[in-house]
Here is the input.
Amino acid sequence: MSLNALPQLLLNGFFAGSFYAMMALSWGLIFSTAKIFHFAHALVFTVAAYGAWMVASQGMPIVGTFIVAAAVGALAGLAIDRGIYRPLRRRNALQLNVFLASLGVLLAGEAVIQFVFGVQARSIQGFTLSPLRLGRAGFTTLEILVVVVSWVVIGAVVLFMRTRQGTAIRAVESNPELSRAMGINDEKVYRNVFLVGSAMAGVGAVLFSLQETASPTMGIEPLIAAFIGAFVGGIGSIGGAILGGLLLGMMENLGGIFLPGHLQVIVAFLLLFIVLLVRPVGLFARDTKA
Amino acid sequence: MNFWFHVVNLGLIISILGFSLNLLIGYTRLISLAHGAFYGVGAYAAAIGALRLGISFPWTILFSIVVASIFATLVAWPALRVRHEYLILLTLAVQFVVTGVLLAWTSVTGGGSGLPGIPRPEAFGRRLVSPPDFTVWLTLAAAASFVIAYWAGQSPFGRVLRAIREDETATLAMGKNLTYHKVAVFTISGALAGVAGSLFAHYQAFVSPRSFDLDESIFLIGVIVVGGAGNLVGTIVGAALLASIPELLRLLDLGRETVGVAQKFLFGSLLVAFMLFRPEGIVPEGFRFGRTRRREARAVGGALAPEAVDATLADDTDDDAAATRALERMEERLADSADQPQALVRDPDKPGILQADGITKHFGGVTAAEDLSLTLSPDRVTALVGPNGAGKTTVFNLLTGFIPPDAGTVQVDGQVLDGLAPWQRARMGVVRTFQDVRLFQQVNVIDNVLVAMPGQEGERLSMLYSRPGVVRRQERDNVDKALSYLEFVGLRDRAYEPTAALAFGEQKLVSLARLAASEADVMLLDEPASGVDRQWVRAILRFIERVSQEGKTICVVEHNLDVVRAIADHVYFMELGRIIAEGPPDELMSDERLAGIYFGGAE
Here is the structure.
């Protein structure tokens, strides 16, 4: 393939990467703090998308749709933490068992959505897109929206992490026992990370459904992008998750130079394999351990 | 009628997959989200072998086994270098890549429409066509797979797997090569998935990527969770239950789509409910485990005699009395020296002298060890003392290879240990205990001792299946030896109890028996007397004294100066990662400067 497509691919990579960065940050925040391999994050994403679809189809303007989706996502995430994870924490369940419960929640929840809404895909209305050009590269106003919203949300979360609440989150993340001894209420911290992380997933769900469609099993694909972004960047590092997501988006698109389109999914996993083998702590993690 | 045979047949194939996955999840606590992929690789190997490579029926099964086990081994190799949560991610990645390749590589795999027309097998000149024709053969295959998996799980190999599950660090410290065992369990798991895959391909006469996707992987995990992790009988229960649910739902006449949804909902809810309310599954691990073990116990000479059982009951009410009794038993044992565990008699050709020179380690700006040199020899008990944070435990970590030093060298009897992993050092005769004991809690007491024994043929897969008789004979001898080690610490009567049921003092003694069972010459004991009452301390000190008399090289890290005075002949005094004094205990303890550092907390 010729390099003429390079500007376009870089641009596409940045669009996709911005969305991945937000998703990686949202999942990574929960994983690194609550130490839960939160597979059901995909369900939170899906539930928020359906919530957004319902209000959007009633004529809600796009700004309102985002707010509703964030709220629905936050509540869904909180409900999963309170209903499933907290009882397991109290029982000192193995991390593996919490993960398996999370898988179960995802399956059961997807089944409920499928039962209520059917299997057909839904698209969210309310945003009219028009094409734009920048030199040889073309894009749309929707892609601009994705980039702007993703970075606004990322920025808001980065600022939030500097507040008192955010500091408590970082304390629990780096040393739960010590922070408990210092009087930090860890249950409150878990609540906060689930609220913040899930609200981010809700916003992401609207962006995703505007570009593609909402369906009962829509959540798994962005979830995997979030995993890969978070791990490639480095668990526990906010900057790492953001850069990891961006890198993933870039690689997927630039991989198109060498590989046919349907193998793009393999590029993502290849990136993951290589990073985990060469630098298991993640590319952008501070290497604190000797 | 055919319908029910079909359900049974599917249940049998799922059981085989369940055995395979249970070895990973239940025995070793290695999660795999790629089991659908392993299964698929096996099924496609049989299909492609039969359709494109002209391999005929029974050989397709062998071909599948080879391909799937090689595939699983290749996946395991990189995956096992990383931490547990990464394994979820890596196996998930493998699952997606395999599904992606099956869909995309149309010229070989037939893509999304799959490969039809796989020949049905023939048995005794008759072609198997309908489900009932297959049932007998599938039952035989499932039974054979059960035996293979059971043998792996109950053998010394399986014991190491459980030890890894309970505590990787302690397993490493006992001289076990974790990587070998983890890769090997993936290999055998892949082989069984290959069996299941090839049977499925011949049974359905058709394979397509949908049968081997992430949903299948999660379904198989569900079989393990519901049936009971670590128990193969539970796997059969789980497979029977989960294989029949969709078929039973179909009888309810709900309509195709609703059945799919209901099945998914039920399945997901089951996973959650079991994790919340019955994480051990329908058939818990100990269910079969306990019974078998007790039978073995009787075979070895009635370790659970009636009076011993009575003593056990009394132990629970009075910890101090239990300590005294253990001590008395130890004394009796020691008096009767003809009955010593053989391994305590040392190899006279090996002096057992450990020599460390110039060991240095910095963590960032913190000095953990600075130019440490020390000599441990069998003719004296050595103690490392010093205030908290002096780096005493770090010295053990450096000597046993848990932390690589920045500089310096360690040798035992002239053999250089530098660069060797902890398990290699343990095999060369340097073992350690841990402050927090680190016993394998969810197995029986005797398994803690058995796992430490060196040179077990049954830990190697190749021996396990080629020489089962040798393995079994050696195991019988080892059980006898393990019991005598337990007797040595006065705990023979607790051999077949779950370790978690023991008091902390008893656990400390078991950890000493485990140490002795390793047959190592150099023993590093990290705070052997901490956290237990005086009676237990006496029993522990008696053990140290005795083992030292037998010519073992002993080094202890100890805070209790009375203990140091009682057992140590030579003391290294450490402060801030340096050895600042050495000599006989009385001499050092009367030094006021050292006393000031020790008690005053000058820094």
Notes: The interface with chain A takes residues 25, 29, 31, 78, 81-86, 88-90, 92-93, 96-97, 100-101, 103-104, 214, 218, 221-222, 225, 257-258, 261-262, 264-265, 267-273, 275-276, 279, 362-364 of chain B (CB under 8 Å). The longest strand of chain B covers residues 366-376. The longest helix of chain B spans residues 2-28. Confidence is low (pLDDT under 50) at residues 289-317 of chain B.
